[in-house]
Design a protein that fits this description.
There is one protein chain. The chain is mainly α. The protein has 7 helices and no strands. α1 (28-52) runs antiparallel to α2 (56-86), α2 (56-86) runs parallel beside α7 (175-200) and α3 (96-106) packs antiparallel against α5. The longest helix has 31 residues, at 56-86. It is globular, with a radius of gyration of 20 Å.
């Protein structure tokens, strides 16, 4: 054990330390979303590179943190939309469908009334388009994720509270395809957040 065994120290090298605690309430989730998403993207690339070098164990073990980080980033993105519009975190825990349905009902479905209010107070007004087909597609993807990991614990623990395995047979998932689809979801959620933030920033 080294002389200074504390974990949380400031350090002296500006370029080897992280700075946190600077956020306000409304920017608090932004860094988390970026951190989990970017870390997942980076880990996918590391896994693919090592996989090409026939390091199969990396492909088979990195999937757990990768999937968890993508899923958690999606969950936080949904919660951030609600926080920006409603001022709090929606009830629903880690259930993506419950969270999404709450955001759809309480935020997205009420955007028309926000549009009208903003039109009266903004000199330059741009009405963004939100395609119902895209909203339905997002929900379908969230259902797909939830069928595999409904409470955000499957890829964190692999066993439930009773000590039973979540996966009882072999499965495969393509890293490249998963990365593309997860980022599609996250980009659309970011688009929704930007729209809502724009309308509420008057």
């Amino acid at each position: 054990m080294s002389k200074n065994s504390n974990i949380f120290i400031n350090g002296e090298d500006f370029y080897s330390r992280a700075y946190f605690g600077w956020q306000n309430k409304y920017s608090s989730l932004t860094g988390l979303i970026m951190g989990y998403r970017n870390s997942a993207n980076d880990l996918v690339e590391i896994a693919l590179e090592k996989g090409q070098n026939v390091n199969i164990s990396v492909l088979d073990t990195y999937i757990y943190p990768v999937f968890f980080m993508y899923r958690h980033s999606i969950e936080l993105s949904i919660k951030r939309i609600y926080l920006r519009c409603c001022g709090g975190i929606p009830k629903g825990g880690h259930d993506l469908i419950v969270l999404w349905d709450k955001v759809k009902k309480e935020v997205i479905d009420n955007l028309d009334s926000i549009f009208e209010e903003v039109k009266e107070k903004k000199d330059e007004f741009v009405q963004f388009q939100i395609d119902d087909k895209n909203l339905k597609n997002i929900r379908l993807r969230l259902i797909e994720i939830s069928k595999v990991d409904s409470k955000s614990d499957v890829f964190r623990y692999l066993i439930d509270n009773n000590g039973e395995l979540y996966f009882t047979d072999s499965k495969f998932i393509d890293y490249k395809h998963m990365k593309k689809r997860m980022n599609d979801i996250l980009e659309y959620l970011e688009y929704l957040y930007i729209i809502i933030d724009e309308y509420l920033s008057w």
